[in-house]
Amino acid sequence: MRHFARPFAAGTKISSIIAVGVAVALLGAAALWIGLVAGGGRNSTGDAVGSASLAPEISVPTVTTDEVAVSSLITGIADVPLYPGARKDDTKCRDDPSDNCLYSFEVSGTVDEVANFYIDTLTGRGWVHMKENLHQDRRYLEFFLPSSTETGSVRRYIVLNVYGSSSPQNRRFWADVRFERWPDSIHPPIFPGAKQSETHWNVTEASIDRVTAYTVDAAPAEVEAYYKEEMLRQGWRYADKEEYQGRLGMHFTYYRVTDVVRKWGSSVMIYTHLEADGQTGVEVWATGYETYELWLDEQKTK
Question: Residue 81 and residue 130: Cα distance in Å, rounded?
Answer without folding.
Answer: 19
